[in-house]
Amino acid sequence: MDPSVDPCEDFHEFACGRWNQRQSAQLLQTRTFELKQQILDALYHQDKSESSAMETARKFVDVCQNLDTRQLDKDIQNYAKRLGTVPIIGQTLENGREMPSILDSLELTARYVYERYTYRGNIRTNHQPLALIMTLEPKFTFWGRWNDWPRFDDSRPPYNNCRHFPLSKIYQEADRYVLQDFLFINWIRGLKNAMDTRFKLLCRDRFVAHFYKIADYLLIKYLRNNKNLLPEVKAMAENVRRFFHQILDVNTWLHEKTKAKLKQQLDNVEALIGYGSNALNLTFIDELYEMVTVPQNPTSVELFQFEEQITWNSMDLDVGDSFDIGRYTVAQLNAWNWLGTAIKIPIGYLEPPFFDPDWPLEFNYGLMGATIGHEFTHSFDEQVELPAENVGNDTNEFLEKRQCLVDQFGAVLYPNERLNISLKGDGLAQVKETLADNNGHRVAWLAYHDERQKRYGRNPPKLPGLLEYTNDQIFFLANAQKQCGRLPVVSPDSKWMQFVHPVTRVRINERVKNYEFFATTFKCKLNSTMNPEKKCKVWRRLRRH
């Protein structure tokens, strides 16, 4: 915190100021790095005879860490000679977004590869294939945005059936050499991690990603605390769901049959908390990885190909109960919504600094309760089959209210003092996340007050060491501090500006601007920075009595 900052002018700086002075990464990222290292350490501290799958994972880490990374330069050159060229479209080594960093990772051979094996380096002789790739790129870009926001008047979500048709059509239409080069550049992107100088740390990350069932086992058995926290989290999830129901009830712009269908969708969302039923079954885990054979003394490309094979094969590992669907490790410090049918809160996320059953309600609901509300709201990302009556009006009302968030986050300016420019974010690309924040935190706030009233009545206990802050203020502080982080330096082609999550400062500040209860809690004057007169409310807030 930085108490010298007025929370009504810059709540992010008030909540995160001193963290940002000490740290460059978010709290989530910092804790993720620590947890992955603990899992890797646990892998080497167990008896080698305990599990054949663990022994396979150890071999992978050993091979990965001992790989001569300089061999990668030769591998890239050989592949470039065999495949032709590496397309670099509209970028330069000085200000390009991705390819410069990829080439720079090759160190001494970067300029050589660039001049010998790229369209950019041979633009005079390659203008024709360059033009073909430029027509191919937008088609792939368009394909990546196939799943638009849900429309109430669509009967079914355009999910599995429609997804692959445009891609196969592009494959058929594209020149095979152009397509080959286009796919090669994406292959290079995958190899970029292997070129990083922090190679051993990346091997740790790759172990957790590829052998995620083993990582889960190590985390659950050796690293988690032994508190019985699942009942409390499940009770919190149901409390949040109950208030989401009530919020739907008071939204008068929704037709009654539409409300009923949305509430049915909400009730059908399964809250999966903790880990799957086979997570501690070593026999089960050993059988999953029994066909995996780590190559001996591989080149960097051979190791990469082995990892690709594990990735594809692991799609067959999603067996067991419903928690295993989706191929996510429970060491992931996040929650997520699986296709609108389930929210998942893995055991790795149910640890300090994100949750503890012994913590005050303000912390747990500000952190985990808001996360649960956010993920429940994502259940409406996918389209819901609704009755025909009045659906068109519901759709128009919804899109109009949603546009408020699109305009709000799309108007945020990101200054670059060095270039003397200010750039706008992409409010439309971010609207699923900003809407999930907008509603999820409202629901968590209501559920928190309900639970506090049940436990303490009108006189909740003050928190030792934080006596100068009210309980409600601590709720918002806990909520913000999970996302503390610095604003990145922007440039005209900054990729993060198209990310679905706004950057931390924007996400925190723009979110609380829409909460009248935030302004009341911190006594912000009307039209102060954090209390604008116009507020975006897609799902209306209940009045608290």
UniProtKB/TrEMBL annotation:
GO terms for molecular function: metalloendopeptidase activity. InterPro entries: MetalloPept_cat_dom_sf (IPR024079), Peptidase_M13 (IPR000718), Peptidase_M13_C (IPR018497), Peptidase_M13_dom_2 (IPR042089). Residues 342-538 form the Peptidase M13 C-terminal domain. GO terms for biological process: protein processing. GO terms for cellular component: plasma membrane. Gene3D superfamilies: Collagenase (Catalytic Domain), Neutral endopeptidase , domain2. It holds the Pfam family Peptidase_M13. This is Peptidase M13 C-terminal domain-containing protein.
